Structures are given as structure tokens and as C-alpha cells.
Amino acid sequence: MDAGLFLAVLSGFVLAGLSPWIVRATGRAHGVILALLPIALTGWFAVQLAAMRASGAAISEGVAWMPGLDLRLSFFADGLGLLFCLLICGIGALVLIYSASYLRGHPDLPRFYVSLLAFMASMLGVVLADNVLVLFVFWELTSLASYFLIGFDHERPAARAAALQALLVTGGGGLALLAGLLLLGHVAGSYELSVISGGNFDLAGHPLALPILALILLGAFTKSAQFPFHVWLPNAMEAPTPVSAYLHSSTMVKAGVYLLARLSPALREIDGWYPLVTGFGAATAVVGAWLAFRETYLKRVLAYSTVSSLGILVMLLGVATEAAVIAAIVYLLAHALFKATLFLAAGIIDHESGERDAEKLGGLAPAMPITAAVSILAALSMAGFPPLFGFLGKEQLLDAAHHAPAHAVPSLVALAFAATLTVAVAIRAGIKPFAGSRVPTPRAPHEPPGGLLLGPALLSAAGVALGLAPWLVAEAVLAPAAGAVLGKSVAVELHPWHGFTLVFGISLAILAAGTCCYFARAPLGRMARPIDALAAWGPARWYDGGLAALDIVASGQTRFLQSGYLRRYLVISVAVAAGLAATTYLTGGDSPLMPTGWWNEVQLHEALIAGTTLAALAAAVRSRSRLGAIAAMGAVGYGVALLFVLFGAPDLAMTQLVVETLTVILFVLAFHHLPDFARYSSRRTLIRDGAIAVAVGGLMTTLVLIANQVQVAESISWYYAEHALSAAHGRNIVNVILVDFRGIDTLGEITVLAVAGIGVYALLKLRLRD
Amino acid sequence: MSSVILKTAARFLQPLLLLLSIFLLVRGHDEPGGGFVGGLMAAAAFALHAIAESPAAARRALRIDPHVLMGTGLLLAVASGMMGLAAGGPFLTGRWSAAPLAVLGTMPLGTPVLFDVGVYLVVVGTTLLMIFSMAEQE
């Protein structure tokens, strides 16, 4: 079995686990050392991509994970997956190197790397997973890693709130996604994405088509911050800047886009696909661009513009023509390059000058010329200035909207609006801090160390190089990705110069209008006050309201259900469980109501032991002293153990005896701490509790006796008896069942045991500290 | 609590109980016994020590923190499952091989045995964690 993809994902997790030691052992060089793995993986994925292009077949691998459930741990890589892998590992390596300088000396550095590397591995898992459940697991892991990274600075309440918001929004969407994927797998008859996206089944005509689409879109939209779920993304800027650059601009937020692209062959025939995906995408593109235009904090400006870009990508996938898909893939790469650069540059500005507000920055270029050049090039690429790669991306998407089969004009208008404001935003985020006259900043700015510059410089340079020579990636990287989405091989032709076309004209007009918007931002802002007032009632308010409502419901039901008295919980849970069992027993089935004939089988010595046990029980209930009650309970336990021996269950008997002994020891230890052995309950309570106890005990006894008479299914004891020695190499069937046949049950039980132990420990130790 | 009789008895009983617990663990696959009851027995041995001497003395005699025992046990159990996975079967598939014992022939060794050792350690750790926490609550 080939396991390269699995090992690639696994290696990321292994490195995450080892990273604290690596950071400690290698000191200042740890960034570069940790980056070796993603660099190697980038190379490996590039080789795989070349091999895949040569052979024309996607790489696929997998093992049966739970054959009984038909669950496979399977991975596959086609052009789309490998493009994402290259982005994840390539940008990941640069971000690791950047982080080492950015967070130098931070006491929680190991924790940071564990989360960041675990994220990288999970993200690889998302884009390489074949089985939808494997995809879902990694999908949730990325949300979890994002939670830890946003809340990295966990002592600030704002960071914690932002982390929770991101987790609730993306996690909630993840649950919808799970339901959607399961339904999809059910309808498609396969849970493998490679089969589902083959689209060889009639989904559009299926009655579940629309629910499936809605659930999957909910998952993708929350992850990719589509309106109205976009609120979490700007707040996620509480994370350290490298995290924003990596997770919240270039990779994780694109997981939703990836999923839409991956499933579009199967889903785009459904009627709702085009209006929902294109509509929400366009709305997100417009809203995001507007909010970015109105924001002044550097990172939040970039976050809103990321929302807008994600909207554009989703919108293009909704259109789903060949041109639109190619445009989406080109823009995806362009956006990853310029947006990661701008985030990293914003981090440098913050790091070196101590200022985060774009309006309070200016004239930094003489102090940090390299950073200025890097940032300005990225901003120009984002604005779509020729001949940078962003320009090619924008040409492609305008062209795709222009040639859209339906609603070409509204699509073009939405795109042009978003692109115009994006120009203004790019100038403010990437150029303004460096241009003009010097504005005083909290710290004297200077050029950052090489570790901080390397990442943004390389990404920015890539934007220039690919703009001038797009053939470097067009056929080798972008065409296979677009082909995977479209389900056929396509040619991607990118040229730095397309001639004087209509699209070029629009592009120039957008640049001009965007520049005007930038310089007119103050008057435009004053005119837009009513819109701002409207925005205050937007999704952010809904989230807060939803959270408050959740709190009210939770505290209400807690007050109602949770009295805090153990005895009340016991009564409720025992009575409810017995009530349900009794209802089923009395109403359903054709089994006899009362067991018959069992008394004929009772031997004299058995009756004696049972009688003694009952007498001991009575003594325990009636005892006036605690020690007497404990001793009597011990006698009950030994009596039961004796019965186990008589019925040929030595293992059970032995365990019961030791448990009884340990219980007595625990009692002895707790003896001094218990309250007086007095009667606390009123007579009524005693009668009520006694009645419940007798009813439950009686019911259980009856059920056990009846179960002995009724044979619902064939007994499987013979199977264990027959296979214990031959298959499991053991003669003690009980133990073989525990450790082999039903090992996973035992694993669950010992886990519960350990958790319970920790619970007891916490209860006792926490009380001590008070 | 300080009793010469209990202390003296405990000194002899504890090693016997520990031996018995290992005996139960090892024979468990073929005869009555196993990791669970063995673990309880070992916990009883240290509980006896805690009562006869002091919880601190019992902790010293145990040498390893109960938390660590619990964690190690769970890891062993999972690891034994992973071995089945690594061999190409589903999680927790039993794998067996015979380990040669100098003159006594061979002793069958399998991942279920490892699993049982994991159960043993979790039980010892959890029980002692509870017992020590209660005993130390003076």
C-alpha cells in the first residue's frame, strides 16, 4: 500500500508534538529548523504534481479503518488538492520562519508552534482527504487549532472572546457540514470524495438535494467567512499576525472555497447552487469591500478585504463556467500571495513602530525601505496594477463575469464595486503607511531583522515574477487544479498583456475610481454615516444576541434541572431509567409479564446465601452506627460474590471481593470527614426513597429473570467459547472478551475510569485549596 | 493511626499482595484473573501501606505518581490497538508471537497482553489516586 499522502499529513502532527523540544534545543534557529519539514513537503508535493500530470491520474491511497462501518482512512491528491498543499506548505514554511522573529522570547512559544504545526497538518488533511468523514475530522481540527491560535494571548478577554466566536461559528457550521456530507454520501452511495465528485449519480433529482446543498453550504460559508457569517474573521485578528497571515487569509478560510470547488461537480446541477452560491458570494464581496473601506486598523482592514476576496472566489465557483473556475483558481493563488505579504508587512509595521492604525501611519519608507518596497508591490498586486500577478487575476475574474451565461451585468457591477474599493483599501493598507510625510509613532521605526523580511519579500517577489511570467504556473499548477474542479482537462492561458479589450478598459477604470475613492475617503465616510448606522445592526449584533439568548436558556435550564443535591440527581436518573424500562416492559413485546418456574431451580444453599445477604441488607438499613452499616454493606457484597462463585464466575467473584475490600478502606479513610450518622430525612422522604428503591430493584429482578426465559436472538456465547483459544490465544473467556473481543469497550471503560479518578482528585484537592 | 501489629503485618502482606496481583495479571488470559482484578489487588497493597504507615510513605513506596500510571496505562492500551492497525488490520486487532524463555519453552506474547497491562496500570493509578487524595485530606 502506498502511504505517502498519509505520511505527509502525519509528519506535520509528529513535528507539532516534537516542536516544544525542538524550540528548546535549537534556540534562535528554531524557525528555520521547523520550516525544514514544510519546505521538504513543498518539494515533495511539487514532484507529485509533476508525476500526476505525466500520468494523468490522481494519487489515491487508503486502508480500511473500520471495515464493519465501511469507513476508510483514505486520501487522494489531484490538481486542486496539490495546489492547496503547495500553498499550505510553502506559505507555512515562510510563516514559521517569520514567527520565530516575530514572537522571539515569548514564554509560550512552544504552545504556539504546537498549534500552528497541528493546524498545518490538519489543513493538509482537509485538502488530501478522500473519505468525507476523514475530511470532517481534519476540518474540525483546523477550527480547533484556529481557536487556540486566536486565543494565543489568552490573558486578554478580547482574544478569548474572538477565539470562542470563531470556534462557535465555524464549529456550528461544521456540524451542518457533517450532516450534509453524511446525507450526500448516503445518496451518492459512496463516502469517497473522489467518487462523489465524479458525479455519476443523479443528485439534482433527489428529494434530499436541497437539504444537502444547504447544509454543505452552511459549513463552507461559515468557514470561509461568507456574509452573514463573516463577523468572526475580523475579530480573529486578535491572533498574532503570522497566524492572521497564514490561517485567516491564505489557508484556513479557503477551506470552504476548497470544499465548494471539490464538490461543485456533484452539487452544481442542483437548482439552488447558482442563486445561493453566486448570490451569497456577491453579497460577501460587496459587503466585505465596503467594511474594509470603512475600517482603519491595518489588520482589520486586511481581514475585511479578505472577506471580500473570499466572496469573489465563492461567487466565481457559483457561476461555475470554465472561465469562472479558471479565474477562481488564478485569483486564489494571487490573493494568497499578496494578502499574506500585506499581513506580514502589517505585522512588521506593528512590531517596529508600535502603531496599528493606518490613519496614524505615514512616511515610513525612508526608515524601512525594503519593507516599503515589499508592501507596496503587494498592494499594487492587490489593486490589480499591471504587470503584477494580481492584475492577471483581476482580468480573469472580470472576463469570467463578463462572459457569464446569466446575470453578467449584475455580476460585473458587483465585482467592479468590490474591486474599486479594494484598490482604495490596498492603497491605505499597503502604500499609505510608507508614503507621504513622516508621522510620529510610539517606537522609532527601523528595518526589521531578516527573519521577518524573508517571507513577505519572497511572496511579494513571487507576485511580480508570476505577473511577468505567468507561464511558470499556468500549465503546471493552475491547469490541473482547474481541471480537477471542471472534471476535464483544460488549458490555462495567461499573458501579461491581453491587448486593449473591454475588460482592460474596465480594469483601468477600476484603478482610477479606486484611487479617487481613496483620496475622497473622508467625504465618502461622512456621506456613508447612515450605512454605518445600519451596519451596527448587522450580524455582529445577531451573534451577541444569540449568545445572550443561549446564556439565558442555559441558566434557566440549569436552575430547573440542577439542584446541586446528589440524592436528587440519583432519584431522578434512577426513576427515569426505571420508568422507561418499565414502560417498554409493560406495553411492548410478546414476552411473558411474570417469570415462572424459577423457584424450582433454587437450591437450598443458594437460598441460604441469598437470605443471609438480604438479612445483612436489612441490618445495613436499620443500623444505628455507621461502622455497623459499613460492615453490613460489606457482608452484602461478599454474599453477592459468593453467588458469583456458585454460578461459575470466578473472575467476577474475585473482582467483587477486592472491590468490597477497597470500598471498606475508602470508608475508613473518609470516616473522619463524614457528618454525624444521624437521620436527616423526614419520614415522607424515607418512604418515597424506599418505594423508588424497591420498585427499581423489583423491576430489575423481574427483567433479569424474564431475560433468562426469553431468547430474542441466538446466543453468541458459543462463539466466544469456540474462538477464545483459536483466535485469541486465551482459555479464560471472560478475560479474552475484555481485552480482545470487546477490547474497544474496555478501552472506553478504562478511559472513563481515569476521567472519574481525575474528577475525584479535582473535587478533593480543589476543596483543600479553598 | 499507628499500630505496631498493623505495621508489621503490612510489611509482610504488601509484597505478597503485589506478587499475587502480578500473578493474577499474568495468568489472566488463561485462568481467572486479569488486569482489572490484578490492578485492584496492587492498589489494595499500597492502600494497606498508606493506612499502616502514612500516605506519604505509600507514595514513596509506589515511586511513580498515580497520574503517570493512569496516563501510561491508557497509552499502552491505545498503543496495543495501534499495533493491530500497523499490521494492516483494524484498530485493536490482536497480534501474537511466541517469546522464547530459556529452558521453559516459549511464552505466547500478544498485544492483548499489553492491553491488559494497560488496564492494570489505569486501575492501579485511578484507585490509588482516589485513595491517596482521600487519605491526605486531613
Question: What this model shows, in words?
Answer:
The complex is a heterodimer of chains A (770) and B (138). Chain A has 770 residues and is mainly alpha-helical. Chain A is 74% helix and 2% strand. Chain A is built from 31 helices and two strands. Chain A has helices at 4-26, 30-55, 79-102, 109-128, 132-150, 157-188, 193-196, 209-223, 232-235, 241-250, 255-267, 273-294, 298-319, 322-353, 369-383, 389-402, 408-431, 450-468, 471-486, 502-519, 521-527, 529-535, 539-561, 566-587, 604-622, 626-646, 650-670, 683-709, 717-728, 733-741, 743-769, and strands at residues 59-66, 71-77. Chain A has a two-stranded antiparallel sheet with strand order 1-2. In chain A, helix 3 runs antiparallel to helix 4, helix 3 packs parallel to helix 14 and helix 25 (604-622) packs antiparallel against helix 26 (626-646). Chain A is elongated. Chain A starts with a helix and ends with a helix. With 138 residues, chain B is mainly alpha-helical. Chain B is built from five helices and two strands, in the order H-H-H-H-E-E-H. Chain B has helices at residues 4-27, 35-52, 55-62, 66-86, 111-135; strands at residues 96-101, 105-110. Chain B has a two-stranded antiparallel ribbon. In chain B, strand 1 (96-101) and strand 2 form a beta hairpin. In chain B, helix 1 (4-27) packs antiparallel against helix 2, helix 2 (35-52) packs across helix 3 and helix 4 (66-86) packs antiparallel against helix 5 (111-135). Chain B is elongated, with a radius of gyration of 17 Å. Chain B starts with a helix and ends with a helix. Chains A and B meet through strand 1, helix 27, helix 30 and helix 31 of A and helix 2, helix 4 and helix 5 of B.
